[in-house]
Amino acid sequence: MTDVIILEFLDDHDLELSPKPLYRNLTRHGHDIGYSTIRGRVRELKARGVLDKDNDGYYEITERGSAFLAGELNATELENNP
């Protein structure tokens, strides 16, 4: 569920965020997810190809991430790297 919250937040708000601002904004919007959880999950989501990270440490949702949110990919398909 945490992964979906992260992906939906970045997608809905069309944002690129590093883990700390992502944590602060998710908390501000009522999500109770710890900072260390956010840091770990964005790394894993990047490894699965649903987030991309730029050289400055900012994460954004990828086309693969948008496809997952749209129901075009299931969780099993995300286990296979892009």
Describe this structure as you would to a colleague.
- Helix 2 packs across helix 3.
- A hairpin with a 5-residue loop joins strand 1 and strand 2.
- This protein is mostly helical.
- The longest helix has 13 residues.
Overall radius of gyration: 12 Å
Report the sheet with the most strands, covering strand number, pairing sense and barrel closure: 2 strands, antiparallel
Order of helices and strands: HHHEEHH
Structural class: mainly alpha
Strand order of the largest sheet: 1-2
Molecular shape: globular
Instruction: Tell me the number of helical segments per DSSP (H or I, 4 or more residues long).
Output: 5
Percent helix range: 55-70%
Q: Low-confidence segments, ≥5 residues, pLDDT <50? A: none
The total beta strand count reads 2
**What is the averaged pLDDT score?**
93
Strand content: 5-15%
Determine the N-to-C terminus distance: 21 Å
